[in-house]
Design goal:
162 residues, alpha+beta, 4-stranded antiparallel β-sheet, 17% strand
Amino acid sequence: MNSAATQVTVDLALVLRLMSQARASGVVTLAGDPGEAHIVLVGGAVLHATSTATPKLGEALVARGVVTKDVLEDALRHQRRKKVKQPLGTILLELGVVSRAVAESEIEMQIIRVLVDAFEWQGCTLRFEPAEVSARHILFPESCQLETLLARIARARHAASV
């Protein structure tokens, strides 16, 4: 008996659309040669996205001049002391370092950066782990609805190819 696995090419955007329509909550993990990406869904909306191949939110904020390295380090120390784990964007907002509009915009840009990178990955494994994800302590931009994100990604890709 042959136990070799069959590799199937999966369209990540299609998978995310199906999960969005099903209002799924959990974590999509993409793993392969470029690294690993985690996309957190709550009720079908993208709540959070990270990738080993994409700079972290804090690094991007410092690079763009939104926060200083010292402010970032203070926020990360504050984050580690919290009893309930909260994402960096929520911590920065809580500390009054950024406005809600800036935090939401930066979180959205981070999610888009991770998705743009992940859409290009080839030969990766994809896993979905259903989970009850609480958004109670997390800044949740309305713009994180999947179709809104996909439309912004398409516009960005089109502008880059022109």
